[in-house]
Design goal:
By secondary structure, the protein is an alpha/beta fold. Helices cover 36% and strands 22% of the residues. Helix 2 crosses helix 9 and helix 6 packs across helix 9. The chain is elongated.
Length: 354
């Protein structure tokens, strides 16, 4: 009887306690990283970079599988999708298509570098963006050149010529909505890789890789080392070293997911009005929103930076991230995205799970 009375008392005072904290029992929701796509570069009749009988495609596939297994083991709730799980050729545009169709929250493309200068060594991570560095352009042209192995590549890539530097001008016009998140993850990858086994941190860079071009989520391309360098090659082909490389990327994933997954508290339903008012109510399984900006300090609800939009905010680390909308499906959010981008060109879709 005492236990029943205690439960009844708690059930009666809990709503009051939550109300006193400015929260409601239904207001707690969480933004979580639920799906990651791991892309093993090259494959099939595209071997990638070559040194003797060593092919880039085999190294990337081995590391990709090791990384995927680590994520599955530690985060069974996270869906791990491979763009390829065996030695097959997958077009660059289809790799991004796989990520987009599966509503991925993160895209990780694994590659191995090569250079005419045999002394070039080390690891580096790229995000989508314009860079005038001639070395980066050379790497881009090398990785992008595989599209000539595809059928009708001029149509799939809107006339893009991977060997013509002028073709890369179009990328300077692109707005990368996920640059901040991509840079966050890329920085974590490089930091964790400092422990080895590949020496020499070449840093985080921006370049115009076609495989990242149409990804609608944070995306990075990791060059794990130089197959053209004898020391790097020995490391990249060693199974224990591949495990360490995968482990370092996994540690970066852990840190990124911890920052990505955030408990949030939404205002009562009467205060959830936002522009446009036609956005549907969320279902019991959560909803999607459109993130418009982030800041290191909390902005007032009527801040001019919101341009008249009604925003909710998520506290993530030292930053506040602001989003609008309440969409049952990602497709609904995608339909609303162009209108939001009229005000915020770099807006992008996030998932909010209850």
């Amino acid at each position: 009887m005492k236990r029943i009375i205690t439960i009844l008392l708690l059930s009666s005072i809990l709503p009051t306690l939550l109300s006193g904290l400015g929260l409601s029992a239904q207001s707690k929701q969480v933004v979580e990283l639920r799906t990651v796509v791991i892309d093993a570069g090259h494959g099939g009749h595209d071997p990638g970079a070559i040194n003797g009988k060593i092919y880039e495609k085999n190294i990337t596939l081995s590391v990709a599988k090791r990384l995927g297994e680590m994520i599955k083991s530690h985060y069974p709730e996270v869906r791990v999708i491979y763009t390829r799980s065996d030695d097959r050729f997958v077009e660059l545009y289809r790799r991004a298509e796989i990520a987009n169709k599966n509503n991925a929250d993160l895209f990780i493309s694994l590659h191995v570098n090569s250079a005419a200068d045999r002394s070039a060594r080390g690891h580096e991570t790229f995000v989508m963006g314009q860079d005038k560095n001639s070395d980066n352009l050379e790497i881009c042209q090398l990785e992008n050149s595989v599209i000539v192995l595809e059928d009708d590549y001029t149509s799939n890539y809107q006339g893009f010529d991977p060997g013509n530097p002028e073709s890369y001008i179009i990328f300077s016009l692109l707005q990368n909505a996920h640059l901040e998140q991509s840079l966050d993850f890329a920085t974590l990858v490089q930091d964790r890789a400092d422990s080895g086994p590949v020496a020499n941190n070449r840093g985080v860079k921006q370049a115009n890789f076609l495989v990242l071009w149409k990804c609608t989520m944070p995306a990075v391309l990791i060059e794990m080392g130089f197959i053209s360098n004898s020391n790097d090659m020995r490391t990249l082909t060693d199974k224990n070293s591949q495990q360490r490389i995968a482990s370092n990327i996994f540690k970066a994933f852990q840190a990124y997911k911890k920052s990505y997954d955030t408990d949030i508290y939404l205002p009562p339903s009467g205060e959830e009005e936002q522009k446009p008012s036609s956005a549907p109510a969320s279902s019991g399984n959560g909803h999607f929103g459109i993130q418009i900006m982030a800041s290191s300090y909390l902005l007032p609800a009527d801040a001019k930076e919101f341009k008249g939009w009604r925003c909710r905010h998520v506290k993530s680390g030292r930053n506040y991230k602001y989003y609008v909308g309440d969409y049952r499906t990602r497709d609904e959010a995608l339909k609303a995205l162009p209108k939001v981008r009229n005000s915020f060109p770099e807006a992008f879709i996030i998932r909010v799970d209850q």
